[in-house]
Every structure is written in structure tokens, then in C-alpha cells.
Design brief:
Layout (H helix, E strand, L loop, with lengths): L1 E4 L12 H6 L9 H8 L10 H12 L10 E5 H8 L6 H13 L1 E3 L13 E3 L5 E3 L2 E5 L2 H7 L2 H7 L10 H14 L5 E3 L4 H8 L7 H4 L2 H19 L2 E4 L10
Antiparallel strand pairs: 1-7, 1-8, 2-6, 3-4, 5-6
Helix pairs in contact: 3-4, 3-5, 8-11
Length: 249
């Protein structure tokens, strides 16, 4: 995989990624790749891969407009939330289901721990939520809020490109590409196994391996169209190729 952040003046210049703007700011120290990987690793869960729920999470974080550094409980016009997500202004049932998913989704904050010591810390994304008189009230659980207060994590989650995605695989690949770009914020090359892409990036379940398990099937059904869309809609430009070992890719 060979991909890079698009240069200024590209078709996405008007949709510049806030995260990379921050990381490329001369006044900021270079962010350690391990820091971002560990900091956002709690989002690597198939529970948060459904497009509607993910976009709702991003919208709720974005619409706090920086106030999230000082508070974790919010009230805002429901129409504003729905507009941000991109659902019709009267589709309250869809919003209810997305918020319910976030309230039921348990994140594992030790998902990338590097030692073998037992222990865990888990938390739901949202606590009690309510829609009344055109106003939605919600709160982030404290462990999630502790992450979101960090400006770098806030910028990572609120990237504009997320709202354009139509597939959970586009979101998963976009998140992975972004984390890989953090070491130099410009371009990166990497080699990964098909198994890693299936299991750790796309969270393909075992029953779907027959459909996506080979490179040709994975590329045809997911990678090709997802990567094409990411290249069109975000400031990331990705190129990939299968590495052959005899007849096997």
C-alpha cells in the first residue's frame, strides 16, 4: 500500500483535514505515531463500524465545537444534529436507533495493550440521552470524554471526510490510512497480509471469509471501490497492489 496526503491545491483543498493541519503546524511538536495509535485504538471495534452510528458519533463530537474540553453533557437542536449526519429532518426514528447504538456500544480501552498482564477498562460511548421539544440532550461517558478532550483526538474524530462515506469499509480503511500517515504526515509505504486487512482493519467475521478471503475477492468487492471513493472524497491518495508469491497474491 502506498498512500499520501494530497498537496494543497488538490480537489480536496477546500475540505482540508483538520488533523493534518494541526500535525503540520510548525508550532506543534511532531506527534508520536504510537501515541495516536493507542489514543484512538479504542475506536477499532466492529461495534462502531455501522455508517449511521459512526456518523452520529462524529456529529455529536463535532457539534460540541470545542466545549467538550470543559464539559461532557450537552444540549443542542435536534435538526442541527440531523443536518450534520445527513438524514432527513423528520427521520427521528433513524436518529433514535443511531443514538441507541452508541449507548449500547462498549469500547475496550486496552484493545492494543502490548503486555500480557490481565486487566481491562471498558465503557459505553454515550450515557443517558433524551429528545424533547426539538432539543437532544446527551452525555459522553467519562472514560470516552477523557479521550475526546485531547485536541488531537478531537481533530482525528471530527475529520470532514467521514460524512461523505457510504460504507463501513470506507470508514475503516480511512481510519487506518490516517493512523499510518501520522509518523511523517506526508507519505507512507507498508506491507500487510490479507489476514491482517480482513481481521484487524475491516473486522470481517468468519462466516464472510469465503466471500472476501482471497485477494481477488477482497479487492473486487471492497478495496477497489472503497479506495477509489476515499481518494475522491478526502485528502488522502492511496495506491495498492497485490504482492505475488508464485501464483498466490
Amino acid at each position: 500500500v502506498d498512500f499520501e496526503k494530497k498537496r494543497s491545491g488538490s480537489q480536496m483543498s477546500e475540505n482540508e483535514d483538520t488533523l493534518f493541519l494541526m500535525l503540520n503546524n510548525k508550532s506543534m511538536a511532531k506527534i508520536d505515531a504510537e501515541y495516536l495509535r493507542m489514543a484512538v485504538g479504542f475506536l477499532d471495534t466492529n461495534k462502531l463500524m455501522e455508517v449511521g452510528a459512526y456518523k452520529t458519533f462524529v456529529a455529536l463530537v463535532s457539534l460540541t465545537k470545542g466545549k467538550i474540553q470543559n464539559q461532557r453533557q450537552f444540549q443542542m437542536p435536534v435538526r442541527e444534529v440531523m443536518s450534520e449526519i445527513g438524514i432527513s429532518s423528520n427521520n427521528y426514528e433513524a436518529l433514535r436507533e443511531y443514538v441507541k447504538t452508541l449507548m449500547e456500544t462498549v469500547l475496550d480501552f486496552n484493545i492494543h495493550r502490548q503486555d500480557n498482564n490481565p486487566g481491562w477498562r471498558m465503557a459505553q460511548i454515550l450515557g443517558p440521552s433524551e429528545l424533547k421539544n426539538g432539543v437532544i440532550s446527551f452525555e459522553f461517558t467519562e472514560p470516552v470524554w477523557e479521550k475526546l478532550k485531547d485536541p488531537i483526538i478531537y481533530a482525528y474524530i471530527t475529520r470532514k471526510g467521514v460524512y461523505s462515506f457510504k460504507s463501513k469499509y470506507e470508514i475503516a480503511l480511512y481510519n487506518w490510512f490516517t493512523r499510518l500517515l501520522v509518523p511523517n504526515h506526508d507519505n507512507v509505504m507498508c506491507e500487510e497480509s490479507i489476514k491482517f486487512i480482513l481481521n484487524d482493519v475491516l473486522h470481517i467475521d468468519k462466516k464472510s471469509l469465503k466471500t472476501y478471503g482471497s485477494y481477488m475477492r477482497l479487492n473486487d468487492k471492497i478495496l477497489k471501490k472503497s479506495i477509489e471513493y476515499i481518494n475522491q472524497q478526502t485528502n488522502i491518495n492511496e495506491k495498492d497492489d497485490g504482492i505475488r508469491d508464485g501464483r498466490t497474491v
